[in-house]
Amino acid sequence: MRVGRSSYRAVSWHLESGGVQWVEQRLLPHRFEQVVSRNPEDVAVAIESMQVRGAPTIGATAAYGLALAWKEGKERFNEFWLPRFRATRPTAVNLFHACDVMQLYSEQNPTITQMIERAGAYADAEVMANRKIGACLAEFLAVGERRILTHCNAGWLAAVDWGTATSGIYHLAHAGENPFVWVDETRPRLQGARLTAWELNQEGIDCRIQADGAAAWMMAQGRVDAIVVGADRIAANGDVANKIGTYALSLAAKEHGVPMYVAAPSSTFDPACLKGSNIPIEEREGSELLEMDGMDRAGSIQQIRIAATGVVANNPAFDVTPFGNITAVVSELGVWQP
Ligand SMILES: CSC[C@H]1O[C@H](OP(=O)(O)O)[C@H](O)[C@@H]1O
């Protein structure tokens, strides 16, 4: 059975146990496992440790975690849990958007059931937005030989369900356009090689994993018809924060005349952030560059160290692409072009 889009959600409410359920993305593509917890701290840790990741999924996970935390009372909700979830990761504005939504709703003194329903409505809205994005994006991606390059993972795992950047590819495929996808492996956490390739294989969409450094060369050889990526925060001037490596893609795209699209729901827009240089860029542990999660030949998940020595300079998880480098930003509310 196909695992993924619409058969599962990256995060959801687990009715039987009264807890939050999420796909443990660090185990993919080796194992598909879901975690369930009734402890809001486990949910916060799931965001920090990237068990769940991807801007809309992070937001929905925080919404469910806060609904869970509501059972501890309004004071602890406001004094501890809201700051706790807001501190999990700094760049994806969806996290803060979700916290604001849940905080505003809590001021009506809802029941726990109502808070859970509000979190569910938040997640549903993200999925509906993604479906609208996909339909619009597909029209832009139906160019040339439909050879599309993507970076990191902006599929259903990153966006609760359906996906943002990848939903346009799904639409193309279901329209019989036979897209081919160059999947940047996306060092250091390999969201492309581990997650996007897995999602596309589950959908039967032809794709090839490539080194991040190969992307510009594919464009130079005329083998890329369009680029589509997700986003973690879009500033008021259209500058886009996305996975590290996106800015370099935009430079190569401009050089080689390849259109580059950013797909994001309106919850990723941050009008209070006037320009890209104001976007907080997450700096993660340097060890992520020197270690990898993998599976040995016996089938057990191992963390291997890929460099015995070496001091890591830095490990920014995101970069900022100027709006002028982007062909169009596609959201459920419409298309925004420089
Ligand atoms: C649909 S948002 C996906 C977005 O989030 C990823 O970051 P991370 O895996 O660190 O959460 C990456 O920037 C993707 O483009």
UniProtKB/TrEMBL annotation:
Top-rank taxon: Bacteria
Gene Ontology biological process: L-methionine salvage from methylthioadenosine
UniProt catalytic activity: 5-(methylsulfanyl)-alpha-D-ribose 1-phosphate = 5-(methylsulfanyl)-D-ribulose 1-phosphate; 5-deoxy-alpha-D-ribose 1-phosphate = 5-deoxy-D-ribulose 1-phosphate
InterPro entries reported for this sequence: IF-2B-related, IF-M1Pi, IF_2B-like_C, Initiation_fac_2B_a/b/d, M1Pi_N, NagB/RpiA_transferase-like
UniProt cross-references to Gene3D superfamilies, sorted A to Z: translation initiation factor eif-2b, domain 1, Translation initiation factor eif-2b, domain 2
Keywords (A to Z) from UniProt: Initiation factor, Isomerase, Protein biosynthesis
Top EC category: isomerase
GO molecular function, one term: translation initiation factor activity
Listed EC numbers: 5.3.1.23
Primary role: Catalyzes the interconversion of methylthioribose-1-phosphate (MTR-1-P) into methylthioribulose-1-phosphate (MTRu-1-P). Also catalyzes the interconversion of 5-deoxyribose 1-phosphate and 5-deoxyribulose 1-phosphate. Part of a bifunctional DHAP-shunt salvage pathway for SAM by-products.
Similarity remark: Belongs to the eIF-2B alpha/beta/delta subunits family. MtnA subfamily.
Protein name: S-methyl-5-thioribose-1-phosphate isomerase
